[in-house]
Design brief:
single chain, Serine Threonine Protein Phosphatase 5, Tetratricopeptide repeat, 5 domains, about 55% helix, flat
Length: about 575
C-alpha cells in the first residue's frame, strides 16, 4: 500500500501539516481527498479523525502506523551524538540515578520501555555500535568489542564521559528487550573478553556509588523490582571466579525486598564460604545493610525478612548466624516485637522456637498488636481505658498492613478518624493503597475518609501512589471517587477528567506540582495518553509550556516513548 518515499528533506512537521490539510479537505467534501483516504482504508464508513488521516499518510509512506513514521523521522533528525547518548542512557537499569548528574533522585523508573527505545535505535542505526567500546557493549556486539580491545586493551577499564561507567558495569546492567538466550551467551563472551583484558570485576558506578558493582547489576531486583540479567547465575559465577566479592551488600539488600526466596542467599554464601569469608556476613554490617546501626549483615537481613513475613528467608538467616533476638534496623524493636506488632503470628512463633525472648509491650503497643491480630475485644477494652490510643496512626497502619478489615472497622467504630495519618500526612487511605487493601479503602471512604489527601514525603494522593506502584485495581477504584486531576491524568480516566474540566476549565493548565501542568502527566498506555492529551488540548492546555528541565510536554512525552501523544501535542503547538 506504499506509494511514497521519505526524502532527506521530509520532516515530521511537514507531514503533520499535510495531514491537517488532508483532514480539512475531507471535512469540506473533497472527492479526491476521500478517494485517496479510501485507497488506504477501503470501506471506512465514518468521518475520519485526525489520527486516522495520519495513519493513512503513514501507510502511503510504507509505515504501519503514524508513530512508526514519526519515530523514523525523529531518529533521522537526531545527530549521531544524540543517538549515542540515548543508547547509553536507555539500555541499562539505572536504579534511579540520573546519568547527567550521576546522583540518585527523581529519575525515570527502570523497565522494558527504556530498553525498547535503545533496541529501536540499534535496529535503525547499527553503525553506532562502532562508535566506542561503550556503545559496542550496550549493543552486545561481540566482534566490535573484540576489535576495540585488540587496538587498546586499556579500554576494558575506560570510564565513559557520559555516565562514568566501565564497559563491564554497562554490560552487567544492560537490559535490552530481545535476544533471549543468544544475547545472554553473547554477554558472557563479552564479559570474558573484558575480564581477560583487565576489567575490574568489583568496580562500582563511581566513588559516590561504589556498592553498585557488576555483580549487583547482574542479580537485579531492588525497590523498583528490576529485572535480573537473563544469564544471571552464570554471569555472577564468572564475575566471582574472576575476583568479584561474593559478599555483595547492595545485592543482598535488593534481593531482600522481593519474594521469599533463598536462592541468592545460598549462592552468595556458598561462594563466600569457599573463600573462608563468611565472617563478612556475621561481622560489622556495611552501609547498604544498616552500617553501624546493625549488629551484622545477617541481623539487618533478618529484620527485613521478618518485616516482609518471609519465613524461608528467616529460617535461613537464623541458621547462618542471625539471632532471633536481633533488632529491626528501622523500627529499633526486637524482631519478635516487630512480628507481633505487624500481626505476623506464624513468624512470631518461628522466632520463639529459635529462642526469641518475649518482649514487654506497653499499653500502646498492645493496642497496636491487637489491631494487627484482629483482636477486637482487646481493642475495645484498651480504647475504653486509654482513648488517646485512638489518635495514633500506628494501630490503623498495623491493621491495614495485616489486612484486618474487622480491626479497621472496630477502630472506626471506637472513634478513630478515617483520616488518621502519620507525621508526614501519610494517611490511612495511603496505607491501604500501598497494601493493596481494596476492601479497607472502600470502608475508609464509606466512613468519610478524604479521598485526595496529599502526603508530605512524596507529595502524592492515594491515587497517584496507586498508579506509581502499579496497584491497578486500587487506582481504578480510587479514580471513581477522586478529584485529583494529576492522578486522574496518570490513570487515564478520560471521562472523569472531562467532567472536572467542564466544571473548571482552568484545570487544563493548573499545576498540581510546580512546573508540571497536566500535559506532563500522561498515562503510560499510548492510546490512553493520546486521549488524555487530546482532551486537555481541547480545553486549552498549553502545548508550548516548558517544565523546569526545559522540556515541552511533547518532548517529555517522547522521552517516555509516548510518540503518538507527542505528535498530537506538537501538532497543537504548531497551530
Amino acid at each position: 500500500m506504499s506509494s511514497r518515499t521519505l526524502s532527506p528533506r521530509t520532516t515530521a512537521d511537514a507531514l503533520r501539516r499535510e495531514a491537517k490539510r488532508w483532514l480539512k479537505a475531507l471535512q469540506a467534501g473533497d472527492a479526491d481527498a476521500a478517494a485517496r483516504f479510501l485507497s488506504q482504508f477501503p470501506g471506512h464508513a465514518t468521518a475520519p479523525k485526525l489520527r486516522e488521516v495520519q495513519h493513512a499518510l503513514a501507510r502511503e509512506h510504507g509505515y504501519p502506523t503514524w508513530a512508526a513514521l514519526t519515530r523514523e523521522l525523529a531518529d533521522r533528525a537526531r545527530t549521531q551524538e544524540d543517538r549515542i547518548r540515548l543508547l547509553l542512557e536507555k539500555s541499562v537499569n539505572r536504579y534511579g540515578t540520573d546519568p547527567a548528574t550521576r546522583t540518585w533522585g527523581d529519575y525515570e523508573q527502570d523497565g522494558a520501555g527504556r530498553g525498547a527505545v535503545a533496541a529501536r535505535l540499534l535496529a535503525r542505526y547499527p553503525e553506532i555500535t562502532k562508535s566506542s567500546i561503550h556503545t559496542a557493549v550496550a549493543a552486545h556486539d561481540l566482534d566490535a568489542v573484540r576489535d576495540f580491545l585488540k587496538k587498546d586493551a586499556r579500554l576494558a577499564q575506560d570510564r565513559s564521559d557520559f555516565d562514568g561507567w566501565t564497559p563491564l558495569i554497562r554490560l552487567a546492567y544492560a537490559r535490552l528487550p530481545a535476544g533471549g538466550a543468544d544475547r545472554g551467551a553473547t554477554a558472557l563472551a563479552i564479559a570474558t573478553l573484558l575480564l581477560d583484558a583487565g576489567a575490574d570485576p568489583d568496580a562500582g558506578w563511581s566513588d559516590q556509588s561504589p556498592e553498585f558493582t557488576p555483580l549487583v547489576g547482574v542479580i537485579g531486583e531492588g525497590e523498583g523490582g528490576q529485572a535480573p540479567h537473563p544469564q544471571a547465575e552464570a554471569f555472577a559465577r564468572l564475575l566471582i571466579d574472576r575476583g568479584a566479592n561474593p559478599f555483595a551488600a547492595q545485592a543482598l539488600y535488593n534481593t531482600s525486598l522481593g519474594e521469599d526466596s533463598t536462592a541468592w542467599l545460598d549462592f552468595l554464601w556458598a561462594e563466600s564460604a569457599s573463600r573462608g569469608e563468611t565472617g563478612k556476613w556475621t561481622g560489622p554490617a556495611p552501609n547498604a545493610l544498616g552500617g553501624d546501626k546493625a549488629r551484622s549483615a545477617v541481623a539487618y537481613l533478618l529484620g527485613n525478612a521478618v518485616a516482609n513475613d518471609h519465613p524461608r528467608r528467616t529460617e535461613w538467616l537464623l541458621a547462618h548466624g542471625a539471632d532471633a533476638n536481633d533488632i529491626n534496623h528501622y523500627s529499633r524493636h526486637p524482631v519478635l516485637k516487630h512480628a507481633i506488632l505487624g500481626g505476623h503470628m506464624a513468624m512470631a512463633d518461628l522466632l520463639r522456637r529459635h529462642g526469641a525472648r518475649e518482649p514487654e509491650l506497653s499499653g500502646g503497643e498492645r493496642f497496636v498488636a491487637a489491631a494487627a491480630a484482629g483482636d477486637t475485644a482487646t481493642l475495645r477494652h484498651l480504647a475504653a481505658a486509654h482513648p488517646a490510643f485512638l489518635h495514633r496512626m500506628a494501630p490503623m497502619r498495623a491493621a491495614i498492613r495485616a489486612r484486618r478489615v474487622d480491626a479497621v472497622r472496630t477502630l472506626l467504630d471506637l472513634g478513630m478518624s478515617p483520616d488518621i495519618a502519620d507525621d508526614h500526612d501519610h494517611s490511612a487511605l495511603h496505607a491501604a493503597t500501598h497494601a493493596g487493601a481494596l476492601d479497607i479503602a472502600r470502608l475508609l471512604i464509606e466512613r468519610g475518609a478524604e479521598v485526595d489527601p496529599f502526603d508530605r514525603r512524596y507529595g502524592g494522593t492515594p491515587l497517584t501512589h496507586a498508579v506509581y506502584i502499579g496497584q491497578q485495581a486500587m487506582a481504578e477504584f480510587l479514580a471513581g471517587h477522586s478529584r485529583n486531576f494529576r492522578g486522574l491524568c496518570f490513570a487515564g480516566k478520560v471521562e472523569r477528567l472531562r467532567t472536572l474540566l467542564t466544571e473548571e476549565p482552568d484545570r487544563a493548565n493548573r499545576q498540581d506540582r510546580p512546573g508540571e501542568p497536566a500535559l506532563f502527566c500522561l498515562p503510560e498506555n499510548e492510546e490512553a495518553a493520546v486521549e488524555v492529551a487530546e482532551l486537555l488540548l481541547s480545553f486549552g492546555a498549553d502545548p508550548a509550556f516548558r517544565n523546569p528541565l526545559g522540556q515541552t510536554p511533547a518532548e517529555a512525552a517522547r522521552r517516555r516513548g509516548l510518540d503518538d501523544a507527542a505528535d498530537v501535542i506538537e501538532m497543537a503547538a504548531g497551530e
